[in-house]
Specification:
Radius of gyration: 16 Å
Number of helices: 6
Strand content: 15-25%
Bound molecules: 5-O-phosphono-beta-D-ribofuranosylamine
Helix content: 25-40%
Distance between the termini: 10 Å
Length: 203
């Protein structure tokens, strides 16, 4: 499967996926990496690995819709089977979802529907849950509300702070992303009863 990954920061999830794709038997290829601004670590890493990159800064556009359209165009140029948000900190709009609805996945560092939004790790910690985790889901028009594809639990430790817990979640999240994308590429998936399948990369 051809995958475009969207990042905003360090891109550690994207790096883990890139590593996995070095195995010729892994049925996913990262065909491009995009970001919401130039110069983020994730883009630099992708460039060093010879992966095409693009960036669209919201402030460079007259409207959010135009930014959204430009982002969709850049993704579409690589003819992806899937677009994966791996730490992409912007909400896409209707134009993007019109093109990639059902094929745009996001990884969230909490067990949705608990603790959606920008501070899922902090909110779980502040709430005092004993178990949190990560969720891979299909993005819909809401915020972290789309159909869930896969989840994995992570214990919360009494001495955890937000950073420490998030790093532990990210270690699990990387494996969840790599393993789930492998299954999706090989077997397709069912979203709320609807079979969705994507092309498998012919090696
Ligand atoms: C991940 O925990 C992701 O779920 C959240 O931001 C983090 C991205 O980390 N949205 P990185 O940029 O991939 O290191």
């Amino acid at each position: 499967a051809r995958v475009v990954v969207l990042v905003s920061g360090t891109g550690s999830l994207m790096r883990a996926l890139l590593e996995a794709t070095k195995d010729p038997d892994y049925p996913v290829r990262v065909v491009a990496v995009g970001a919401d601004r130039e110069g983020v670590e994730g883009l630099t890493h992708a460039e060093n690995e010879g992966v095409p990159t693009f960036a669209h800064r919201l402030g460079d556009y007259a409207s959010r819709e135009e930014w959204d359209g430009a982002l969709a165009e850049s993704c579409a140029a690589y003819e992806p089977d899937l677009v994966v948000s791996a730490g992409f900190m912007k909400l896409v709009g209707e134009r993007f979802l019109a093109r990639f609805s059902g094929r745009y996945l996001n990884s969230h560092p909490a067990l949705l529907p608990s603790f959606p939004g920008m501070h899922g790790v902090r909110d779980a910690l502040d709430y005092g849950v004993r178990v949190t985790g990560c969720t891979l889901f299909v993005v819909d028009a809401g915020v972290d509300t789309g159909p869930i594809l896969a989840q994995r639990a992570v214990e919360v430790r009494s001495d955890d702070d937000e950073h420490g817990l998030h790093e532990r979640i990210k270690a699990v999240e990387r494996r969840l992303l790599v393993e789930t994308l492998q299954d999706l590429a090989r077997h397709g998936w069912t979203v709320r009863g609807r079979k969705v399948s994507i092309g498998v990369t012919t090696n």
